[in-house]
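Late entry, written up from scratch paper. The run itself happened at the end of the previous shift, but nothing got recorded in the book at the time, so transcribing now.
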Amino acid sequence: MKQLYYTGVGSRQTPPDIQRLMRNIAHRLQEMGLRLRTGDATGADRAFRNACCNQEVYTAKESVLHSINPYVIDAMAMAERIHPAWDRMSEYAQALHARNCFQVLGECLDNPSEFLICWTPEGKPVGGTRTAIMVAKEHGVPVFNLGDSQGLSALTGHVKMQPWYAAHSLSHS
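Output as recorded:
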């Protein structure tokens, strides 16, 4: 059976109650067999990371060290196209945005996540999370922002509509 992925990211300033919610979501999705893709930042990334062991963690260091992943150049180009002020950022900041491409599309940039869960202030696409949101939208990956008042209910409705959810629910009745 094909491994299913979801992306869990967001602001370093994600509120503690939302981080608890993220941990609960991550734990439940792991029970359903989904693998987390996230980063190594504090806040939302850490909340997702600490809740499960079935995960891929992408770092900016990997994006700077081109020899680690041959797809870094492609991720950099993708992030540059998406970011409105690319040429005003440091190489490290650029690497952070390139890392977001991997979080959504996987290590070869060819296997999009089933969906992206994030938190940004007021549910707006801002900061580094904006890059992940834009990559997701470009690749048809549904985005559920817990900073939006409808984010959690939309995520719940989406998950319950997936074939893998029905299979999991039936096998654990």
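The chain has a mean pLDDT of 91.
(Scratch paper discarded after transcription.)
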